[in-house]
Amino acid sequence: MLFSASREGQWPILFSMIHIRRHTPLPAVLILYPMMVFMILVSEVFGLLNFYSFSRWLFMGLSTMGLIVHRYRNPDLPRPFKVNLFIPAVFSIVCFFIVGISLYSDPLNTGMGFALTLTGVPVYFLVVQKQRLPLCFIRAFRK
After folding, report:
1. By CB neighbour count within 10 A (0-12 exposed, 13-18 middle, 19+ buried), where does 80 fall?
2. CA 139 to chain CA centroid, nearest Å
3. Contact, 95 vs 61, CB < 8 A?
4. Contact at 8 Å (CB) between 24 and 18?
5. How far apart are CA 108 and CA 47, in angstroms?
6. N or C: which end of the chain has fewer CB within 10 A?
């Protein structure tokens, strides 16, 4: 994620660098590895899975619903293939059902996952919407 965000200009350019011989995104891996080890040591694996599965299923359901809305709003756009809308509709319903079950079964981890997901909103506006930032922040971000 850090590598691709860096390539898109949404993260410092350091994380888009690739190791010369191994062809791996080494700076991104060196940042993510200690974070993952810390998360596993702090919590049990099942709590960690519950913590992150909420946002994963929520965004998968929202993305699928967005595709359905896009197909209705722009019916004349060329598409490489078409799928009956029943399949993505059922998938979205199942995704939101999983989100609801996780809210019901483990509200603490789900709430923390939702709070962590909401912290991405200001980061999005600070990093992706860079043109709204003062020039000194933009210069510091490029360095």
Report:
1. exposed
2. 26
3. yes
4. yes
5. 10
6. C
HEC profile of 33-74: HHHHHHHHHHCCHHHHHHHHHHHHHHHHHHHHHHHHHHHHHC
C-beta of residue 45 within 8 angstroms of C-beta of residue 55 = no
pTM over 0.85: no
Tell me how far CA of residue 141 lies from CA of 75, 88, 106, 115, in angstroms. Answer: 41, 39, 38, 25
Distances (CA, A) of 50 to 54, 70, 109, 112: 7, 30, 7, 10
Residue 120, Cβ density class (10 Å: 0-12 exposed, 13-18 middle, ≥19 buried): exposed
The pLDDT tens digits along the chain (143 residues) read: 778 878 887 777 888 888 888 888 888 888 888 877 877 777 777 767 777 788 889 999 999 999 999 988 988 888 887 888 899 999 999 999 998 988 888 788 788 888 888 888 777 777 777 677 777 877 776 66
Q: At what angle do helices 26-42 and 45-73 cross, to 10 degrees?
A: 120
